[in-house]
Design goal:
Blueprint: H1 6-12, H2 14-30, E1 35-39, E2 49-52, H3 58-89, H4 95-109, H5 115-130, H6 134-151, H7 157-179
Helix pairs in contact: 2-3, 2-4, 3-4, 3-5, 3-7, 4-7, 5-6
Amino acid sequence: MFFIPGPLIAILTFPGVIVHEAAHLFFCKLFKLSVFDVCFLRFGNPAGYVIHQKTDNFTALFFVSIGPFIINTVLCMVFCAPSFLPVWELKATDPLAYFFYWLGLSIGMHAFPSTGDLTNLWKAAPAVAKRGNVLAIVSLPLVAILYVLNFARVVWADLGYGIAVGILGPIALFRVMAQW
């Protein structure tokens, strides 16, 4: 395994950082939370951020925290799926197909919420889950898995996730579609 500094990864995969922060911002706006500061991309750690109003609404907290995981995963599929056929099946050398693959993979690589977002959700979920909130109950194992994956970034779990969603996802999608 080799080390590449985080700021270099953020620059090489900058669309993913921007989409990640835009997803946080989207859900803040959707749930009418005040946003105090937004940085879509910067040199440093974190590569971007959204500072917003705290909330006691668990649904809002869930979607603001997990929003990048949802949005980045979907957009990774959206950009990679149409590139799949030209790149993998037709062996095309069209730069546009490779551009969309890079775009999709860079977005997929930045799907994991930060440990700060996950910690806030983890702290709030048990009390809400005790009241029978299904979203809170589902969030507990999801947060645990994402927490582990977040720490596994040191062994390229984020790249692995982007590849799994961007390459294996379209393979599965096209196989299911072929059976219809």
